[in-house]
Amino acid sequence: MAACYIHMDQGLVIDLRNDTLCSGRFSSCAPIVLYNAVSHLAGLSHLGGCDALDEPKITHLNVLATVVRPTVVHVLAGAGEYRLQTFTFAPIHGHVGIVSALFAPPIVVHHNFNGISDYSSITVSEIGGALNIAPDNPLAMTALRTAATINGRGHHFGFIGEKHDDKLSLWL
Which of 138, 156, 147 is nearest to 18 (CA)? Predict the structure, then answer.
C-alpha cells in the first residue's frame, strides 16, 4: 500500500483499499476530501490560496467529483496563518461556502472530521472499510512531484494539477 503525497494545487483520486492519500503545509490552503463509500474511491485536493478561488480551482474540484462520484465531501480548512500579535494561528475559511455549494444533495458535506476542522497535514485512508482522516502524515510516502513519478503509478491513479490533467482524463 502506497501513501501518495500531493502538493499545492494538485489533486489525486485513488482506491483507498489499495493506497493512502496525504498532503501537508496547509496555511492559507485547504484540504478537500471526496469519498465514495461504495466504490472506495477517494479524492484529495490541496486547494491553494483558498480565499481566492478561481475557475481552474473550481474546474479541478468538479473533475475530481466527476471521477469519485462522492457520497460524502469534507470541506476542511488549513491551520491558518500565524499571527504574531496573538501568537496563534488564524484559519482561513473563505472557501467553505463556495466549495460546499458545488456539492448538492444527496452528497453529504461536512466541515470537520471527528471534530477536527483545521489541518496542517492530512492523511486520508480507510480503516475497517470506513473513511479515516488523520491530522498527520505517514513516515513513508511517495511525493507525486514529477511526471515520471506520476506516470509510474499506473492507471489506478487519477491526477490533476501542474499540467497533468490528461492523467485524470483516463478515468472519465
Answer: 156
Judge contact between 61 and 75, C-beta under 8 A: no
Specify which residues 143 forms β-bridges with: 5
Q: How far apart are CA 103 and CA 125, in angstroms?
A: 22
Residue ranges of the chain with per-residue pLDDT less than 70: 50-52, 82, 89, 91-92, 140-172
Q: What is the CATH number of domain 2-165?
A: 3.30.1330
Q: What is the DSSP string of 73-124?
A: EEE-EE--EEETTTTEEE---TTHHHHHHTS-TTSEEES-BTTB-EESEEEE
Residue 59 CA to its chain's centroid (Å) = 14
Q: Does the global pTM surpass 0.90?
A: no
Q: How many CA atoms lie within 13 A of 46 on its CB side?
A: 25
Structure confidence at residue 164 (pLDDT): 47
